[in-house]
Known about the structure:
With 396 residues, the chain is of the alpha+beta class. Helices cover 63% and strands 9% of the residues. A five-stranded mixed beta sheet has the order 1-2-3-5-4, covered by helices on one side. Helix 10 links the parallel strand 1 and strand 2 (324-331). Helix 5 (96-108) runs antiparallel to helix 6 and helix 8 (223-248) packs antiparallel against helix 9. The chain is rod-shaped and about 130 Å long.
Amino acid sequence: MSPPSWITPAVARLRTANPYVVDGALAALVLFAASLQWIFPDEGEDRLSWQGWLLAAATAVPLVWRRRAPFTTACLVSAATPVMAVYHAPPPDVVYGGLIVLYTMAAQGRVWQRRFMLAGWILGVSLVMQHKEEPLPFEYAFQLLSVVCAYGFGILSRVQRAYTAALVDRARRLERERAADTARATAQERARIARDMHDILAHAVSLMVVQAEAGPVVVRSDPARAEAAFEAIAGAGRDAMAQLRRILGVLKDEQRDGAGGRLPQPGVTALPDLVRQVTESTGLHVELRISGPPRPLPQDTEVAAYRVVQEALTNTVKHAYASSATVALDWLEDELRVVVTDDGRGPSGPGGGHGLIGIRERAAACGGSVRTGRGPDGGFQVVVRLPVADRQAALG
């Protein structure tokens, strides 16, 4: 059964209110409750005297400072309560101030303070009850149970506050982790964009440089071939501009149209067009071989396969001085093996340039591996193994 709707806001206002105002009202209520037994005695002429009222006030007034000085307040109330009970026998039916300070100490006090107060009140209640004429067993039980219950409620309040603080700390920690994850994802996305831009520009510029170098040689002897070279330069530039616009669209603010209207990144199905473009633009004879039944790939693997071939052919055009190259796609049971082989001279350095580094990074991002080196018949060979299964789906 849920509490009424007005209780939760009321409790929240009490917790945020001025503690002196709230505790002052509580002290006044305790003083009134402690005075009722003497104002309206059950029998006889046992009316409230001013000495008794002052002792009752001593058990209530210190409650104003119960949250600012809990242990001092508890000591004052604990000292005044038995004096009041002994001065005016029989002792009060309920030690209201004592119950409140016990609750306060259990909720806010240190370990030794809590234990000291609990033991002292149990002992004190037992001794004070001896001043009552023929106390009944249930009266002992009532007084002791009241003390224990007040202490227990204080412990529950302490546990609840600690649990709430832990939840708040956990929420803040999760918020920081989410912010860190967002920043990390943003950095990874920007790194991916940088790799894509590098691949696009390097490929397009390489094709344009090759055609521009060949143009002046044949412009007089073979005008048709020179015209084709310039058309290839223009085509490579247009293709590079289109891909750059698509890549840079990721960096734009797309809040107005949701996920945006970006075109899909090129994948394995675009490799025949890439091979044809390189062959027509550079004169490098590139052959595409496919073995095994093609299967759907994760989006990042699709892009990685395309960019790997693009970068490998760009390196061949720029550095290998090759006359032919082969691109082989082997669809195996659990991976796609991409092999790019040329008949050129290979890289001049032992580790390759930025292009080979980019190939390794792309393959590693998809859970794949790269091997580069001399081909079986000379030249240079790049072997990339990319997993076919989606790693996130496999982990899930």
